Amino acid sequence: MSDTPPRMTPPMEGPSSSFKQEKQKLTLTTILMILGGGGCLVVLIFGGLIGPVFLKYRGQMLTMRRETSCLNNLQRIGSAMSMYATENDGKLPLASKWMDEIQGHLRSPRILQCPVVRLKNVDSSGYAFNDALSGKKQSGANAFVWMVTDSAHLERNAHSSAPDLPMPPRHTGLKRGVSNQLMADGSVKQFFSKP
Fold first, then answer.
1. Residue 76 domain flag
2. What mean pLDDT is predicted for residues 134-141?
């Protein structure tokens, strides 16, 4: 017998030890994949439920955008009329060529087209000028008189002595027909048809 004590060997770090660590990593990876996949599943289900709601209101949102664009067009036309009058001794353009006269004061010729009309016919306008204001001083015009209005006449430089509004109205604000008018004082008004 030898007097030497038995040698202690360090614990094995062989296959069984690394297997446990891999197993733990694999479990964590698996959990993350399940959660990630589950999150995608939740997003898909939520999108499937909410998507049709957005599609339902998409048409209404486009209609509202066109209506707002029409009001903006009329405001810009009012500004162009004021600029024209300033350059022409305070006088508004002649009704027979009012669009031709103010076009140079507009950023785009598309402003002279109602967006709803442009959607149906690219060459049409959809606005008419008041004959009573043709060549008159802008400052002398009654503020409650219409200057430019939505019109059933679609040709360029359309003009009329009375607002011949399109029937049915082309805009549908609050589920009622709406006609837009630029007033002589430069304000823009919406007139609702009776239900």
1. yes
2. 88
